[in-house]
Design goal:
11 strands, 2 domains, elongated, Rossmann fold, glycolysis, binds 6-O-phosphono-beta-D-fructofuranose, single chain
Length: 328
């Protein structure tokens, strides 16, 4: 039986991440391939409420696979959290003749999509786009691979100056409440210590480790600190704390911030985005709704959105062990 879906909306929502453009391109081109219409919704749920729509064809997404950010812009929308806001958005979609949408975003965006599906029985499909890698049902979110490579590149540069001056650097990285960026980029960049929210070993242990590091002849040290870590001190307070207790150290701080969200996506993110876009559109046409497309063991899988957002992803214990051994 032919699908009743003839027009699909696509939008990006929440914090942007590298690979979102590649996913938009994939959704648009899959629609073109399957001869259904595709409409770009600008500024996420905000643009949906305001009816900020533009029809996209295969040529509208030329030369964006390599670009960071999102051509559709992104926003965090307070109004969509209310029933009235969602009603306005629904009315706009119906007026435009949109039968289903693909949302590319993180936890908050998926929560909105799930409510929308439940309230209006509207077909929705999610593609996980966030650098944090904090969504259940997928081993990788779009932008995570690019972000960890960006962090590694930045830390490599910091290490050059750190070792020239025999300094200790605290480098703060993003990740919201989880430590995936910190742990993976930390191991990849050869950090001496990695502080993540999932494991609070205490400040004493940090001092001990730094003492050992100095005694063993290391000329410089890099400590990666996840923004959500639970030491109770931010990176600037950590600097003061270490300078007070270990005056042998000359300490500097570097907060990498939003540079982690920018830049050209890695090949991994581009390919993943292309695959997820195809799967999202095809799944909607098969009558599936309220799922997120994810990747597990190289295979694409669908997870109910409700399951994808119900808890935090867990940290990789084996990698934690590797990290401990590598700091010897
Ligand atoms: O969720 C992505 C993320 O970059 C987090 O790592 C970070 O905590 C947050 O967004 C920053 O949000 P904003 O861009 O609104 O400051």
């Amino acid at each position: 039986m032919a699908s009743e879906i003839k027009k699909i909306g696509v939008f990006t929502s929440g914090g942007d991440s590298p690979g979102m453009n590649a996913a938009i391109r994939s959704v648009v081109r899959t629609c073109a391939y399957l001869k259904i219409e595709c409409v770009g919704i600008y500024r996420g749920y905000q643009g949906m409420i305001e009816g900020d729509f533009k029809t996209l064809d295969a040529r509208s997404v030329n030369n964006i696979i390599n670009k960071g950010g999102t051509i559709l812009k992104s926003a965090r929308c307070e109004e969509f959290r209310t029933k009235q806001g969602r009603q306005k958005a629904y009315d706009q979609l119906i007026k435009e003749g949109i039968d289903a949408f693909v949302v590319i975003g993180g936890n908050g965006s998926f929560h909105g999509a799930m409510l929308f599906h439940e309230e209006f029985n509207f077909p929705v499909m999610g593609i996980p786009g966030t650098i944090d890698n904090d969504i259940l049902g997928t081993s990788y979110t779009l932008g995570y691979d690019t972000a960890i490579n960006t962090v590694v590149e930045a830390v490599d540069k910091i290490r050059d100056t750190a070792s020239s001056h025999n300094r200790l650097f605290f480098v703060e990285v993003m990740g919201r409440d989880v430590g995936h960026i910190a742990l993976n980029a930390g191991v990849g960049a050869g950090a001496e210590e990695i502080l993540i929210p999932e494991q609070n070993l205490g400040l004493e242990r940090l001092l001990e480790s730094l003492k050992r590091s100095k005694a063993s002849g290391k000329s410089s040290s890099i400590v990666i600190v996840a923004e959500g870590d639970r030491t109770g001190k931010n990176v600037f307070e950590l600097k003061e704390y270490v300078e007070q207790h270990l005056p042998i150290y000359d300490v500097r701080v570097s907060v990498l911030g939003h540079m982690q969200r920018g830049g050209n996506p890695t090949c991994y993110d581009r390919v993943l985005a292309s695959r997820m876009g195809v799967k999202a559109v095809e799944s909607l046409l098969e009558g599936k709704s309220n799922y997120m497309v994810g990747i597990r063991d190289t295979k694409l899988v669908l997870t109910p959105i409700a399951d994808a957002i119900k808890a935090h992803t867990e940290i990789d214990e084996e990698l934690l062990r590797v990290s401990d051994i590598m700091t010897t």
